[in-house]
Description:
2 copies of one chain form a homodimer.
Chain A: H1 42-60, H2 67-74, H3 78-84, H4 88-112, H5 120-129, H6 136-154, H7 156-163, H8 166-182, H9 193-211, H10 217-232
Chain B binds a DNA duplex through helix 3.
Amino acid sequence: MQKREARSKKRERSKKREERERSKKREERERKSSAVPKKVDHEARRQEISAALWRIAVTRGLDGASLRDVAAEAGISLGRLQHYFRTKDEMLLFALRRINQLAADRVRERIEALAGEPTPREVLRACLSGMLPLDEKSRTGLLVGAAYYVRAVHDPALRAEAQQGIPELRDFFVSQLQRAVERGELDPGRATAEEAMLLIGTVDGLATYVLLDVHEPETALRLLDRCLDNLFGKG
Amino acid sequence: MQKREARSKKRERSKKREERERSKKREERERKSSAVPKKVDHEARRQEISAALWRIAVTRGLDGASLRDVAAEAGISLGRLQHYFRTKDEMLLFALRRINQLAADRVRERIEALAGEPTPREVLRACLSGMLPLDEKSRTGLLVGAAYYVRAVHDPALRAEAQQGIPELRDFFVSQLQRAVERGELDPGRATAEEAMLLIGTVDGLATYVLLDVHEPETALRLLDRCLDNLFGKG
DNA sequence: CGCTATCCAATACAGTTGACCTGGAAACGG
DNA sequence: CCGTTTCCAGGTCAACTGTATTGGATAGCG
């Protein structure tokens, strides 16, 4: 347990007050070039609020997270929260983008962490296992992602956000499969976009069942390995 | 400044009033042999309410469905709805069980509809494709199921409900794989519970992406066939 | 110093929510 | 007929929702 949620609404923050730095990018407003009398880092504050939102979403679900709850969890007032996110949807969308980015970073790290010249299979395994809820962090990310998923089904804006990264991921998988063919590790007929999408869908389904406690994380990993066995041949 | 949303609450039922019939099954109550002055079919009424709930859940999501909304959609008063479901959770749980049952029935029908003596692959294909959102009905079912999924992640009672049918399904798949081995259509090493769970997970992932509009239904079906090709060998 | 913009706590507001309650209509057994 | 029970429309209620507003603290700039 690394994180404890003190129910006290007392603000004990005031230490992050230092990290103001530059952050010149004005994400949605066009300020009139007037000097910047601001001192706080908007981006950092929003990330803190996002983290508070996730903490609630993991335990109570996304819909059970009211603005007041999030503000309390973040240890700030409702007024302050509304200063950084003018509407609830704005907060939700920001938090979704952020968690997707974190997930992508995690997968990227996993790949770069592979020593030497990893085989295509090793790269794929690293990438796919990074999409499974194997530790607390990725579990949280997927849990929150699932909460967004249901909303995305009904909300076109969220849906577009959710669909965004998939083609890129698929193409990356195809390139790895292609590389495996060139190395003689894979049947040429299986280096297609269809196989790539099949892999992605399978891992997604496995993750779903892990979150439902149908599978243990290790079970999901074993199933993933068997899936790769089927693909590359049990060497 | 009251914004009235144009919501057609007009529902012209009043003819369902006739289908009361017998229905001797007292689903949860044990009447003490006292004469039954009741005239309506509780089970049928609850199913109607469930259907109304699903209609809302498909378009607006499960959490966007208040008791008043459901009552309006069902064309009944709030008081009447609460007569049949004392709490909201009771209604939700009933509707979940019902939709799971309908999905199971649909898969069963698909299997029984196969002519002659279907091969194991044909049986598996029928079953798996029955779990995909290929028509409006199954799409609705999966959409509602997805809405429940997110709740099940946080609610133990719902989670138990969601986990319920999986072992049975897995065992059925294993039996079909075993049968395929005996017929010489499958490598004996692949007739395991792991392969069965892999199939289930894959279809689940594919269904997820169809609901997200990442795949067209036909695409998902093609991917399923390729998955079976990989399993049985491309005949 | 003033001026102005940012930052944010507190409160108000208008609406919705689920649960509960009351009372009476309808159907049955007697 | 009466009494009992089911059935159900309507209303009430406290709690909660997202958003808007007010007022003041703080900080940078001329």
